[in-house]
Amino acid sequence: MSKTSKHPTLWLIAAFKFLKGLALLVLAVGALRLLHRDLAAVVLHWINVFRVEPAHRYVQILLDKLAHVDDRRLRVFSAGTFVFAALYLTEGVGLALNKSWAKYLTVVSTAALVPVEIYEIFERASAAKVILLLINVGVVAYLIHDVRRRG
Fold it and tell me: Which range of residues forms the domain containing residue 110?
């Protein structure tokens, strides 16, 4: 059994994965709580709470999209979100414990998204997308280097 990591970079990656997993867990539970409710009415309530202009173009686009979301789609969204939450929480805990399997899992799951991120950049480039791609490539490179270095 390996000891917990003393490498700050590995801890940073672990914390990020864990926090991302927690955020997705909250999102998945929140989606389930919206079952059998009028999503547009719920969003309109929060629009009023935050004093956002309801006639704004993006608000109208959001409300139009929510009109097509039914309970089945919410369940599917929630299930997928639970799966990714479990993956990120597993990666985060495994990396914090400096487990080799967690490094391999993180390399595979992170590297699998790189082609999608590249495609997104070519479709509609933004600084945020490029930064995200660079961070993910850096995470993959760091973990591969760490695994090779430790054997």
Answer: 99-151
Assigned domain for 116 exists: yes
Structure tokens at 114: 């790189």
Same domain membership, residue 44 and residue 108: no
pTM value?
0.82
Tell me whether residue 1 is in a domain. no
Distance, CA of 62 to CA of 46 (rounded, Å): 13
Tell me if 97 sits within 8 A of 15, measured CB to CB: no
Average pLDDT score over residue span 112-139: 95
The mean pLDDT of the chain is 91
49 in a structural domain: yes
Cβ atoms of 28 and 85 closer than 8 Å: yes
Q: Are residues 126 and 113 in the same domain?
A: yes
Averaged pLDDT, 72-87: 96
**142 Cβ neighbours under 8 A, 6+ residues apart:** 9, 10, 13
Give me the phi and psi of 132, to 5 degrees please: -60, -45
Q: Are residues 103 and 132 in the same domain?
A: yes
Give the percent of the chain with pLDDT over 90. Answer: 70
- Are 129 and 121 contacting, i.e. CB atoms less than 8 angstroms apart? yes
